[in-house]
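hey can u check if this looks right to u? its 298 residues, i copy pasted from the old doc so theres a chance i mangled smth
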Amino acid sequence: MSATVQPPESVTWRVHIDRAMWVGGVRSLMLQALHPVAMWGVWQNSNFREDPFGRLQRTSDFVGLSTFGSAEEVEAAAYRVREIHRSLRIRNHDTGKTERLDQPELLLWVHCAEVYSYLQVARRAGLPLTDAMADRYLDEQRESAVHVGLHAEDVPGSVAEMERYFASMRPHLRVTEEAAETVRFLMWPAMPENLKFLAPGKPGWFPFGALCYYSLPGWARAMYGALPEAPQPAVTAALRSFRLAMNSVPERLHDYAFAKDTRDMLDRARARLAADGYDVGKGLYGLRDPRRWPVRAS
């Protein structure tokens, strides 16, 4: 049994250890916001506007845990997430009715927008993945969908299935006032009180937020119309530059982007993997190299 939920041999490891994930994560929030009911669920049940960076960090922490954590750690966290979702309600402005947040169709939309954003951004930013590896990533991610309460067989498990899913969803998407404000906010966030000291550096966020926006599919950008169109080859070049720069940051320094509990979880993952025979001398990122994997008896 692997020391982590998704072992270094998985495609998930290659995608989720890559720093292009930061763009993919924000892009996924922009994409998710196009579903009116899902957007109202976030708007009505979270403190996103007061603590935007906290929500981004918590999302990245859960993705990290569901990749690098132990099976016990992941199941405990997934149980907490399912219980929270089960208790929350959404007021549907179209019907005036109150609905459950944990509707399968909403959970599926959030899952697909998230994992497909990770995959598409990583490939576009230069992570070398074959088409078969891309399909395998989405198939592996069915496990993360189960963690939040979905059935694996109901979740797209290949690029072709995911494309068909998004094509089927497009007639149901629109830019609500909340979605438009969310995208503007993600490109130019208000600083919460505990981060006011970062305000002088706020202009440095906009190029990153704009890059996330320009990485959206063309149909989503056309719906939002938040920024003038930019040449897509330039966007691809910017994504590649961002990835190269971020992947050059030492792993221990990059770990500080996560909460203390997540940093501790990553330390436990390194220890478990070392005990399982992996060479962690170059950290978790170094385990993309098969030469650092243990030799298994055939």
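Strands lie at 89-91, 98-100.
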